[in-house]
Amino acid sequence: MKPVIYLATQNLHKIEEIKDLLGDLFDIHTVFELNLLVEIPETGNTLEENSRQKAEFIANHFHVSCLSDDSGLEVNALGGKPGVFSARYAGESKDDSANMQKLLGELYGIADRSARFVTVLTYHHQGDFYTFEGEILGQIVDTPRGEHGFGYDPIFQPHGYEKTFAEMTLAEKNQLAHRARAMQKFKQFIQTAGVLHGN
Ligand code: IMP
Asked: Which of the four CATH numbers 3.90.950.10, 3.40.250.10, 2.160.10.10, 3.40.50.1240 does domain 4-197 have?
């Protein structure tokens, strides 16, 4: 029997990507099956804090093995912004298009377009918490391109590629993106550390 894991996120795009990345290692469930009526809190000052907070919240309330994801886009010319505020950059409505327009406005006329996406995953299993980080370097393009993905995907072009993330299929993005790199570390850990014995 495969070990059970709950994805500690309410973001449907992340769920789609994570399910694709995890493959058949786990019996995957989502928090929508747990009758959770509130938004999972994320009030930390860093991606690490938020990632841990999300996993702890689900672990404390439901006592299940779970995997959380906190991610952000860090733009060098903006001192690392939007970073931990990526989801709410243009306001509480978490509007992807407004977030991108705000960012592009702030970068208007600025030559340095370099940026990175970062993901911090936190895995909770039987009272222990483990974190895994992945990043990808790239640049912010001048105008949004592509229909796939979510968030800032239409304006992020990874180094060495002609397409933005939103011009890539899910399979293409999952070959190289920040979330995929963090997930690779998590999967390696699961396969080598033996934490699942007795699950
Ligand atoms: P959080 O991890 O739920 O705090 O949200 C992170 C925010 O960063 C999302 O709402 C998106 O705006 C952005 N983001 C995170 N990962 C990605 C990604 O893979 N592509 C594009 N935007 C992302």
From this structure: 3.90.950.10
Atom of ligand 1 nearest to the CA of 178: 19
pLDDT in tens, 151-168: 999 999 999 999 999 999
Q: How confident is the model at residue 199 (pLDDT cuts 50, 70, 90)?
A: very low
Phi first, then psi: what are they for 159, rounded to 5°?
Answer: -55, 135
Categorise residue 106: left if φ over 0, alpha if ψ from -120 to 50, beta otherwise.
alpha
Res 64 pLDDT > 80: yes
- Report the SS3 class of residue 29: strand
C-alpha of residue 17 to centroid of ligand 1, in Å: 12
Question: Could you list the active site residues?
Answer: 70
Q: How far are the Cα atoms of 84, 129, 140, 168 from residue 149, in angstroms, in the given order? A: 19, 29, 16, 8
**12 burial via Cβ count (<10 Å: 0-12, 13-18, 19+):** exposed
Q: Does ligand 1 come within 6 angstroms of the Cβ of 70?
A: yes
